[in-house]
Design a protein that fits this description.
The structure is a single chain. The chain is α+β, with helices and mostly antiparallel strands. It has helices spanning 15-23, 39-47, 59-69, 80-86, 130-137, and strands spanning 2-6, 31-35, 52-56, 101-102, 124-125. The protein has one domain: 2-Layer Sandwich (Ribosomal Protein L30, Chain: A). It has a five-stranded mixed β-sheet, with helices on both faces. The mean pLDDT is 85.
Length: 138
């Protein structure tokens, strides 16, 4: 699974980019979504790389994310183990969770809004480093 987190806000974004972020459910700053690594999703992430951080999430971080930030549609208690196992076959909406996560700003701050790999930034493809960022935002 790939997690995408919106880092930049609304002000000054091109209209097309605003629309792409809105349709991918990254409507607010520090909102996160889970995506399957399909060809279409990778193209989308490539287009929004200047405004979001993304990377491969491991199972342990995914369990923590669902446990602490998963919101049930029916206001019931969330069982993270059951949902992580069910993600192979169904999406979050089918498992009774909202399809996005609202996160805190990262503890310790964002180093800068430069691209990962170019400088010490968080934007773009963070590969495995995204797990550390997600844990700081829980």
């Amino acid at each position: 699974m790939i997690i995408a987190i919106r880092i930049s806000g609304q002000v000054g974004l091109p209209r097309k980019t605003k629309e792409m972020l809105y349709r991918s459910r990254l409507r607010r700053k520090y909102a996160a979504v889970l995506l399957k690594p399909t060809k279409e999703n990778l193209k989308l992430l490539n287009k929004i790389r200047n405004f979001a951080a993304y990377g491969d999430i491991d199972k342990e971080t995914l369990k923590m994310l669902i446990k602490y930030r998963g919101e049930s549609i029916k206001k019931e208690k969330v069982d993270a183990e059951k949902i992580v196992e069910g993600l192979e076959k169904r999406n979050l909406g089918g498992l009774g969770l909202k399809p996005f996560f609202r996160l805190h700003p990262p503890r310790g701050g964002i180093e800068s809004k430069k691209h990962f790999g170019v400088g010490k930034g968080v934007l773009g493809d963070n590969k495995g480093k995204i797990n550390e960022l997600v844990r700081r935002m829980l």
